Write the structure tokens for this entry.
Amino acid sequence: MANNLNDIVTVNIDIASPAVDSASFDNLLIVGPPPLANLAQTLPEVGVYSDLQEVEDAGYVTTGVTSDPVGNAARIAFSQNPSPSKIFIAVQQEGDATTLEKAVETLKRALDITGWYVICPAGIPESEFEEIAEWTEAQRKMFAYTFMGKTDPVGSVYYRSHGWCGLVRDNDLTSAIPNANYYLHVGATTKSLSYAAGTETWAYKQLAGLYPSYLSGTLKKQLIDGNSNFFAEYSGKNITMNGKTRGGEWIDVIRSRDWLQNDMQLRIFNLLLMNPKIPYTNPGIALVENQMIASLKAATKRGVVASDEYDDDGAVNPGFTTSVPNSQSLTVTQKASRVLTDCKFSARLAGAIHAVRVNGTLTY
């Protein structure tokens, strides 16, 4: 017998599906030339590889004197612990009959593929690094590179680029530098991206497959003061040092900011998407503020934003504050535009401790 309840009560149920976050702040993109050997198959312009075997199956040689730059970079990436779940490889195409296109042209096409965050060149000359840094500064991406000299080849005006000195000793000849050290930036990036944004610092990370630097105190100070990074041995442990961008900001702060911007943006978008209407009233505006607060609480849990703290007098110093406009103070024109403006927040960075100074006194 047919269900005749529809004659009296009709129930329709929609399944509301939130927007899926396509942004990633956890994966690197290796950009470089195609394999030196002839390929039986055509490589994708941007490929995704889950282990080193897949990279080798694509035609890249990953070890030995005939190894490919991209193959070497992939080997260093998959050597880290934990190993990345995937890496992206963008292949340079022919620029003319005898040369490959510049890396920036390859990167422009790679923007069509989502899921990667840090650019890691392999087999790209240092002369192109400044152009890559300039291009990256206008993207929500980061650029990591290794240089083989005492001076960073990229200017100090970029906050999305970070350079790593791959020298083993101050006056190394190129022939004396281990091949693996040309991919120091790949190891440092892979290791640091294995931590969720906000939970990491890019200093004091142990890397596999790379040789530490034994640099003079003068050169170490020069690199640190110049906002460059290096890999050195301290008390028997080989660790990354400094962790800054060329512009002087901490690498983890830039990554955390990008994550927070994306998280808050997505939360507010889903609020609009999952509700048939958000009224332009104080209750509606409060719903927007709730999403801002939810994002900032998530940032606090990750260690991006500081928790509420108390000063010596017991007064609270909040980790973050938010403010939104009162609908009654807005003009008719503002409401008619259906654009809510003047939503603000202020948050204290949790930061990280990179050095400790202790002063003590022993007495009888």
